[in-house]
Design a protein that fits this description.
Layout lengths: L2 E6 L2 E2 L8 E7 L5 E5 L6 E6 L4 E4 L1 E3 L7 H4 L4 H4 L3 E6 L33 H11 L4 E7 H8 L9 H16 L4 E5 L3 H4 L3 H14 L2 E5 L7 H14 L4 E3 L13 H11 L5 E5 L5 E4 L11 E6 L8 E2 H8 L3 H8 L2 E5 L4 H9 L3 E3 L13 H16 L5 H6 L3 H6 L16 E4 L20 E6 L2 E5 L2 E2 L16 H6 L2 H6 L4
Parallel strand pairs: 1-5, 2-6, 7-8, 8-9, 9-10, 10-11, 11-12, 12-13, 13-18
Antiparallel strand pairs: 1-3, 2-3, 3-4, 6-19, 14-17, 15-16, 15-17, 19-20, 20-21, 21-22
Helix pairs in contact: 4-5, 5-7, 7-8, 8-9, 10-11
Bound molecules: zinc ion and copper (II) ion.
Zinc ion (ZN) binds next to loops.
């Protein structure tokens, strides 16, 4: 058998968390992998010498807001340059589809695009658009709870009615049929905050029938975080759907040091329920500027402002002094705006990153003109700062948090591992040189030390340069519990006839 590519002499981390082995890894013409003993002497069109380098499965960014970016900027330089080969979109309750915008784009859907970017009233239209754009990364998508609310409610600042819940359920069911991997919520945001747990549970029933997952940006990450964790579990447990807590953090200075009790509660509850969480490797968060989060306890950095674009890159306190206004008055004057909040303690970030159920997700905001550096720096920063420099975990563990673990938790078949028959998503990197270079002041900088990245067997990025041709695919949910089976048993009827 002749291979298209053979990578030899690299230390292979297979994504499972076990130590590196010296193996030859071959890519077949169909873009799948095979693993051979070292010095196999196999022949290939292209042989890559991996001497001194590590070969890992391509990284999976489990928490992104790349919904419209994968279509508008299919090169996806910010992700591929980090070794990311798959992104999960539709997080925090906001997805680009299925969406119909009537008048104004509700907050925080503006995090993923402008009004004119929301042109996918059906999930299948989004799938088609991604396949047509053929981005450099694979894409799997969640359906956002806030997006569903936007479609069926005119006033988002109240609980959904029985009729509205029924309409949301039907639309979610259809999107799941068309390949969505599950449901996400963003209960901390005003546009979903009034949704009671029962509204989420009703939707989760659909996710359960399809064998999907539930991810949540919890009701709060501040003082009430323990209640929010319990609520997240209760919702997921209701229909036995795997739970993923998004960007787990203890936010707000009054909350610093509480990662210990939060993780203790999570460990107890995840004894009896499938659970994972994601985390980005920074002690600063980023989102829209929210007056509810304005404080003088820590720095707030303005990333963009619609009425005052010149204030991008300045601290809220500086702007307030210049305008001779209070912080809160300044915030209102700047809005709509984006911000970076220095709201976490480094010790909590490390505790959470280290936790065995924690995966890596960037939560990067590609639509932000001055984004948080996590958009370009997350994965190399975990490998350099938290693994190599601070020794929070070893390299096989770090790689597992970006590959094997997320593939399992997000049920992405045949990816996240270097194994025979798996898809050839690969990253070849220098463990000594790898590092993030993106900073708060200069955030759009590619990582160093990523030598080569393959997506579905195609060499896509090499020595700092994008290559021609793109090979990403839309990854539809793969039936762990097959939808067709559930529905052929009459379940579809049963669900649609349920009254709320
Ligand atoms: Zn979020
Ligand atoms: Cu997010």
């Amino acid at each position: 058998m002749k291979y298209s590519t053979l990578i030899c002499d690299a230390a292979v981390l297979d994504g499972s968390g076990t130590e590196e082995k010296f193996l030859d890894v071959a890519i077949s013409a169909d873009g799948t992998l095979s693993v051979h003993p070292h010095n196999s002497g196999l022949s290939a069109d292209e042989t890559v010498n991996g001497d001194g380098l590590y070969l890992a499965p391509g990284f999976i960014d489990v928490h992104t807001h790349d919904d419209t970016a994968v279509i508008k900027t299919p090169e996806m330089m910010n992700k591929i340059s980090q070794g990311v080969t798959t992104v999960i979109v539709g997080n925090c309750g906001i997805s680009a589809s299925p969406v119909t915008i009537r008048d104004e784009l509700p907050n925080p859907m503006n995090l993923i695009g402008e009004k004119h970017d929301f042109i996918y009233p059906e999930f299948s239209g989004f799938v088609k658009a991604v396949d047509k754009a053929r981005p450099n990364v694979n894409v799997a998508a969640l359906v956002g709870h806030t997006s569903l609310r936007n479609n069926h409610m005119t006033d988002l600042f109240r609980p959904a009615s029985a009729k509205e819940i029924k309409a949301m359920k039907l639309q979610l069911r259809q999107a799941l049929k068309e390949g969505a991997i599950g449901l996400s919520s963003g209960l901390a945001y005003n546009s979903a905050f009034e949704a009671p747990e029962s509204e989420i549970i009703a939707l989760i029933e659909e996710v359960a029938a399809a064998g999907g997952i539930y991810t949540t940006h919890m009701r709060t990450e501040f003082d009430g975080i323990l209640d929010a964790v319990n609520e997240s579990f209760d919702s997921a447990v209701s229909h036995r759907v795997p739970l993923i807590i998004s960007h787990l953090k203890c936010a707000g200075s009054a909350n610093w040091g509480r990662s210990v009790e939060v993780l203790k509660l999570i460990s107890e509850r995840s004894d009896s329920h499938p659970f994972a969480c994601d985390c980005y490797p920074y002690s600063t968060s980023s989102s829209n500027l929210d007056p509810g989060q304005v404080t003088d306890a820590y720095d707030i950095f303005i990333t963009w402002s619609e009425p005052h674009p010149d204030k991008s890159g300045k601290l809220l306190t500086e702007i307030a002094t210049g305008w001779n206004l209070s912080l809160i008055e300044t915030a209102y004057k700047l809005m709509p705006a984006g911000a970076v909040y220095h709201c976490m303690s480094e010790e909590d970030v490390q505790n959470i990153l280290k936790y065995e159920r924690t995966m890596i997700g960037s939560d990067g905001l590609p639509h932000d003109p001055h984004p948080h550096p996590r958009l370009w720096g997350t994965f190399p920063r975990v490998l350099s700062r938290y693994c190599r420099e601070l020794n929070l975990f070893d390299l096989p563990t770090a790689v597992n948090k970006m590959t094997g673990l997320p593939a399992r938790e997000f049920r992405i078949k045949n990816r996240g591992r270097i194994e025979d028959g798996y898809n050839a998503d690969l990253v070849l990197f220098d463990p000594e040189k790898i590092r993030d270079t993106a900073t708060y002041n200069d955030p759009k900088k590619p990582a160093e030390g990523i030598e080569k990245v393959w997506v579905n067997g195609m060499l896509t990025y090499s020595n700092g340069k994008l290559l021609d041709g793109r090979a990403g695919r839309f990854l539809k949910r793969q039936g762990w519990r097959r939808l067709s089976q559930a529905y052929s048993l009459g379940k579809e009827e049963e669900i649609s006839n349920t009254e709320y």
